[in-house]
Design a protein that fits this description.
Layout (H helix, E strand, L loop, with lengths): L1 H35 L15 E11 L2 E9 L10 E2 L2 E3 L7 H13 L7 E5 L3 E2 L5 E8 L13 E8 L9 E4 L9 E7 L6 E5 H15 L15 H13 L2
Parallel strand pairs: 1-7
Antiparallel strand pairs: 1-2, 1-4, 2-3, 2-8, 5-7, 6-7, 9-10, 10-11
């Protein structure tokens, strides 16, 4: 009887693990297929030469949900100190392209090896408040990745469920902010692992909302100003408006 029970338990565990693995792979495959449709390719190759930067938007599946990783920048940094950002930074002369910049910066900031990232796409470039042309690179990582933050650049690394960025509950919108074209979006997220509350705003909030809407194929519960089915026109207009002010 005991042997039969052991076999039944092992079978149940194997079946559950197989089901969880299948769900994880399905979520990932659907998100990858959707996001690849929005890869910019050479659509913005006409842009003038500007100082460039890239960010990596790391995605992974945990407990049946898509998540992303964010960092809290060190308070000792000269720019954007203490702000929540995706891993990223300025392009080095040795970087071959935007993807290499994003992967290199992620390795330097949180210890993520470039060969542990499945790059999915590069989304629409945006201009930061410092006048940098920022390319968002989306990639999948393993759920088991354990960040090792570089203390000179990063104070904390935390995970956020992607659907958090399309819900109204913790979203705030402000209009008429100096230097901001359109609405400034922000979120307050309390990390269940540490109990720390993080303020996610500005460019990071906009990119997180964009990726969440595209990957989940869900319209945000609040007005974002762009058609999440085809956001290219909106981001082109936004880019040209900012270019005209440089």
């Amino acid at each position: 009887m005991f042997v039969v029970l052991q076999k039944s338990v092992r079978y149940f565990v194997r079946s559950r693990n197989a089901l969880m693995y299948g769900t994880t792979m399905l979520l990932k495959e659907e998100a990858v297929a959707t996001l690849k449709q929005f890869d910019i390719g050479e659509k913005f190759s006409y842009l003038p030469a500007l100082p460039k930067a890239s960010v990596l938007i790391p995605l992974f599946v945990r407990a049946g949900q898509l998540h992303t990783l964010l960092t809290l920048r060190s308070k000792e940094l000269r720019t954007s100190a203490g702000e929540v950002c995706f891993p990223g930074g300025k392009k080095d002369p040795s970087d071959q392209d935007d993807v290499e910049t994003a992967l290199r910066e992620a390795q330097e900031e949180i210890g993520l090896p470039p060969d542990h990232v499945e790059v999915v796409c590069t989304l629409f470039p945006v201009i930061s408040k410092r006048g940098l042309l920022v390319s968002p690179v989306v990639g999948f990582i393993e759920e088991t990745f354990n960040p090792t933050p570089n203390p000179s650049e990063v104070s904390a690394v935390f995970a956020v469920p992607l659907d958090f960025f399309i819900r109204e509950k913790d979203h705030y919108a402000t209009s008429g902010v100096a230097g901001v074209i359109g609405t400034l979006h922000s979120f307050y997220f309390r990390d269940p692992a540490s109990g720390t509350q993080y303020h996610i705003w500005g460019l990071t909030a906009m990119l997180a909302t964009l990726v969440a809407a595209l990957a989940l194929k869900k319209k945000p519960e609040f007005d974002v100003g762009f058609d999440f089915v085809d956001p290219l026109i909106f981001f082109k207009k936004l880019l040209h408006k900012k270019l005209s002010k440089l």
